[in-house]
Amino acid sequence: MLDARYVADHLDEVIQRLKNRSSTWESQLADLGDLASQRRQLIGTTEALAARRNAANQEMSKLAKGGDREAFALRRDELKALSAELKSEETKLSAILKTFEERLMSIPNLPHADAPVGSSEEQNRVVREWGKKPSFDFEPKAHYDLVPGLLDFERASKLSGSRFSVLWAQASRLERSLITYMLNVHTEQNGYTEVAVPYLVRSAPLEGTGQLPKFEQDLFQTKRHEDDEEPLYLIPTGEVPITNLHADEIFEPGSLPRSYCGFTPCFRSEAGSYGKDVRGLFRQHQFDKVELVCFAEAEKSEEAFQKLTADAESILQQLGLHYRVVELCTGDLGFSATKTYDLEVWLPSQGRYREISSCSLFGDFQARRAKIRYRPAVKQKPQLVHTINGSGLAVGRTLIAILEQYQEADGSVSLPAALRPLMGCDEIAGQKF
Question: What is the reported pLDDT for 65?
Answer without folding.
Answer: 74
